[in-house]
Amino acid sequence: MKNTLVSFVFIFAILVANAQQRQEKIGFGIQAGWNMSRISGDTFDGKAGFIGGIHADLPVFGNFHVQPEVNFQQLGGKYKSDAFAIGDIRYRYAELNMNYLSVPVLMKYRFKPLDLDIFVGPQVAFKLRAKNKIGEGETYEARNVKDTDLVGVYGLEYCLRLPDSPVDFVLNARYMTGLTNFANGENPNMPNDSYRNNALAFILGIRF
Q1: Which letter does DSSP use for residue 63 in this model?
Q2: Are 73 and 98 in contact (CB under 8 A)?
Q3: CA 22 to chain centre
Q4: What digits encode the pLDDT tens for the residues 26-62?
């Protein structure tokens, strides 16, 4: 985890230095939104959650930009009927709730006349918390969730520029596809061999 963070910081510093040398505008912003997550396999239904954080928009060359972000993101799923068990007891209403610190690095291509970007890139997510919720509120630690997760991110972003204003509004729609299995696979409460985080997110932000 430490090596991954150092690598992201190093890449970020190089991109900032390159953009400054080119004397192009670097944008910084804050964002928040909603995502619907879906865990692969047949054990879970979808679950709504929050996503929000900060980002930087760094010109690289031509119409290409790089956008590193740091987001707090809620992922998880609702166990389907009779899919969740503790010992011989099966629970009809249960959820797996996971909170992550997500760090995507997005390569963007900008269609300048439209202020529309398409983007794709990797995202490393560091687990902050993972809990199972049973019934109306009983929770316990989900120890079978790994500390890190890797997903691929792709989507569209539209920038609404306001006349005579230093602030732009940003509308962002993205899909996240799990690339690795986030479950240790050692706990009978997760009967499938592999689980991957997938999510559709809609985000609204402001950029300076």
Answers
A1: T
A2: no
A3: 30
A4: 999 999 999 999 998 888 899 999 999 999 999 999 9
